[in-house]
Amino acid sequence: METRFYILLSLKTPxxxxxxxxxxxxxxxxxxxxxxxxxxxSREINNTCLxxxxxxxxxxxxxxxxxxxxxxxxxxxxxxxxxxxxxxxxKNMEEI
Length: 96
What we know:
The chain has one domain (5-95). The two termini are 26 Å apart. It has helices spanning 29-38, 73-95; strands at 5-13, 16-26, 51-59, 62-71. By secondary structure, the chain is α+β, with helices and mostly antiparallel strands. A 4-stranded antiparallel β-sheet has the order 2-1-3-4, with helices on one face. A hairpin with a 2-residue loop joins strand 3 and strand 4.
C-alpha cells in the first residue's frame, strides 16, 4: 500500500478539535516535508492554540500525524495560499 501525505486543518471547539479541511500532497516525503517547513505558525502547541495544521501520512492505510503547527487566522490564510500554489506547481511538474 502506497504512503500518501496530506495536510489536515482542524480547529478547537468546546468539545475538542474537529477537522475541517485537507490538502492532499501526494507520495513524495521530501516534498511534503519541504512544504510543511515553509508554513507560518508556532511549533509550540499550547491550550490557547485554536487552529492546528498537521502534516499527516498514511501508513498501511491508517493516518499518522508527523508534525503539527499552531497558527493564527492570518497565518492560516498565508499557509493556504502557499499550499495551493505548491500543489499546483508539483502537479503540473508531474505532467512535464
